Structure formats: C-alpha cells, structure tokens
Amino acid sequence: MKQEGVECNEITCSSLISAMANAAGGSQWERALQLFEQMKQGGVEPNDRTYSSLISAMANAAGGSQWERALQLFDEMKQEGVECDEIMYSSLISAMAKAPGGSQWERALQLFDEMKQEGVEPNDR
After folding, report:
1. For residues 75 and 69, what is the distance between their CA atoms, to the nearest angstrom?
2. Confidence bin at 7 (pLDDT 50/70/90)
3. Longest pairwise C-alpha distance within the chain
4. Cα(90)–Cα(34) distance, integer angstroms
5. What does the alpha-carbon distance between residue 99 and residue 89 come to, in Å, rounded to a whole number?
6. pLDDT digits (tens, 9 = 90+) for 38-57
C-alpha cells in the first residue's frame, strides 16, 4: 500500500490485521505485528478494533505460541486507555486455552473475573 502512495488509517489497518489473523493456512501474526508497528510509527492511533484484531492474530498463532504476546498487547492497550469489550476478552481467553504445553487456564479464569469486574458482559457468540 505504502509503495503505491496509499496511507493506512485505523480502519484500513485494523481490517488488514484482521485478515492476517484469519489467513488461510494460519495466522500471519508476524506481519500483523509489523503493520501494527508501522501504523503507530506513521502516527495512526490504534483503536479497540485494531487491538482486538491483533490479539486475535496472536490467539490464532500456530501451536498457541503467542499467548504471552497477546497478554502484553492487552496490557499495552489498557495503558493507552483503550476500552476492552467481550470480543477482546474472548480472544485473550482463547489464546490462554491454546498455550503450548497445556492451557493457561488459571490466567484464563483471572481474565474472566477481570472482565466481570470491568462490567463487560460475556455474549453467547
């Protein structure tokens, strides 16, 4: 996009990151992170959709290998003042379930409790 003179805004970048999270053949989480960093360097502020898509990309990484990175992004997002929704929490809990060597179920329960304390209602999707 940039090579062709097209700038990425938060909607376009978030959509691209979402596409990378759900790519055929597995999450393209590395490319999603690169785009996320380029976005921030270019002065585009990530929003809740951006973070949600990026956390999904981490949750969908092969073998659950990026569950810790998903938590780091979640912490960064909260520090930036971005609100969490049920989709974001669900993606995080999914990342905990897929962690290599066995699920991080205790951390998943902590996230669920945090979600309830924040007043975020789980949905049935």
Report:
1. 10
2. confident
3. 47
4. 23
5. 16
6. 999 999 999 999 999 999 99
Question: Which residue in the block uniquely carries the two structure tokens 């951006």?
Answer: 50
How far apart CA 123 and CA 85 sit, in angstroms, is 10
Instruction: Give the Cα separation of 41 and 115 in Å (integer).
Output: 30
Residue among 87, 92, 122 nearest 104 (CA):
92
Torsion sign over Cα 28, 49, 51, 124: negative
- Which residue, among 35, 46, 56, 110, has the nearest Cα to 82 in the 3D structure? 46
CB 103 within 8 A of CB 96: yes
Query: Which string of b and e fits 58-67 if b means at least 16 CB within 10 Å?
Result: bbbbeebebb
Q: Which residue has the tokens 């949600």?
A: 52
What pTM value is reported for the model? 0.89
| CA 67 centroid distance within chain | 10
φ/ψ of residue 63, rounded to 5? 65, 15
Torsion of CA 7, 35, 96, 114, to 10 degrees: -40
How many Å from the N-terminal Cα to the C-terminal Cα in the chain? 33
